[in-house]
Amino acid sequence: MLIKLLRQGSPHRYLTTAGVAMLLLAACADTPIRAHADTVIAAPLSDQREDMTFQQWRDQFREEALAAGIEPQLFDLAFSGITPDPAILRADRSQPEFTRPVWEYLEGAMSSTRLSSGRRLLEEHAQMLAAIEQRYGVDRNILVSIWGLESNFGANMGNNLVIRALATLAHEGRRPDFAHEQLLAALEILQRGDITPDDMLGSWAGAMGQTQFIPTTYNVHAVDFDGNGKRDIWHSSADALASAANYLKASNWQTGQLWGMEVQLPDGFDYALADMSIRKPISEWNSLGITTTRGTALNLEHPEQTGSLLLPAGHRGPAFIVMDNFRSILHYNNSTSYALAIGLMSQRLHGGGQISASWPTGDKPLSRSERLELQERLEAGGFEPGGIDGIIGANTRKAIRRLQLSLGTPADGYPDHELLNALRQWAE
Fold it and tell me: CB 3.0 to 4.6 Å from 215: which of 82, 185, 206, 318, for a disulfide?
């Protein structure tokens, strides 16, 4: 039936020559991207960096860093013995063919071990968390969830020298300008004396400490909560969690409000409304027939709140209304799967149960090559996916919805094999 609709339906109004809009990673809500500050520390190095040896690049970068206010002795100490790290480049260039579906990601994020550890730490650090909660207004369960997902409560912070990792990426990584900005910010951290070069450890991408801040985020939002004179997100859980709370507060966290909730949709619902760009008052979602999972109205303590409808696995999976605090979590890590994991884990830590609806576990996620093919075929059909990069971001989902609306199928924007196979047969 789907093939017939593709051939006989009404997608023809889109069958123009598609323009190529290479937007790369813009507006992608399914790719984890570390939150970072809005300010740019200094202009990037020349685009000729790829023609330089590492030593040549280092010498040029040293001149720039010193011009930006970094002390010569500090720079030389930080770069002492630093050489490119091939493992960093392999990690940067790795593009996995297969990705985990959201339900597997959530299962791993909210493992029984992690939940048990989170509950224990909530009790163990109750006084500290209460003080952070009072100062910044951010729910302690959210903070402990971030702590657990980012570093397994400080156990897995990464063992890469941040200066070496960022220098490697600034010299020949895929995003050298971004790494360049972070490297200058990392040198500023060292110059403040918050940490030493040998103790400044992090992920291969330069995310640091128990809450995995990138350097620009650290410089703007890290705080010295324990009062020892250093903003130490590596060794001080108080500093790390307070810094995360400070960042969420700056990202429009609404004290006392929910991040979101699981909901139930009525029969015949217009799935095209399931779009993060569409925000409606809770009263309006009520009027459209959306209820709690118990079938009751969506009554909130703050009825003025607006929310968006999220279908992370399409119309066959659970549905959620997500609100301002969900978007604040997206500022921390721009992945809907991540933000959903934080929200749901915080509920479990607070004594809540599991979600009610079932996941479509029979669905197999598209591989990267299949996602690329889907975008190519959408573009060829004039549905304007906004670039061919293998990332199912906002523009690709809009293109899928345009196709689905033309077909008269649920316009949930969810890519699956049925849709891809239909496009393949349509082109034959």
Answer: 185
